[in-house]
User: What shape does this take?
Amino acid sequence: MLFSSEQVNRGRKIVNTGIVILILLLLGDFTINLISNGIKGLSAEEIIIKGLVLFNIFLYYKGNRIAFKLTMFLLSMVYILIFGLLPAYLVWELLRMLNVLDAFGGALYLVILAIIIIAVNILIFKTGFYDDVLAFKNYYQEKIKNKISQ
Assistant: This one.
């Protein structure tokens, strides 16, 4: 598939922004655990997992094919958090503060979730967000393939 260079550049910006958000989430989680539990609250496996994710991001920027696939998988989780869970959580908390959820019962939870999912789908597909990331992904895979074959 051929994509325009403008689309690839937008996709690169989206992916790089996702990587920055992923790094900030990792560092924020590490900082919160360190502040709330102290040094003894940090487990070795948490540190190793966070270190492996950061090392994977480093390998992604070095052009490793496996690291690219893992990074895209990790970014999909970041995008689900940002575009799916965060708006749902914020809306539910707002409605809970306004006591709307208690008045209408539990069915409103499903209705709100459906509205948010539909809105996010419209946002992602109508703005070309998905197409831009797909264009960058295809471009980067071709770039890695050509680099390896040389």
Q: What stands out?
A: The chain has a mean pLDDT of 85. Helices lie at 5-37, 44-62, 65-97, 100-104, 107-126, 129-149. The two ends are 22 Å apart (CA to CA).
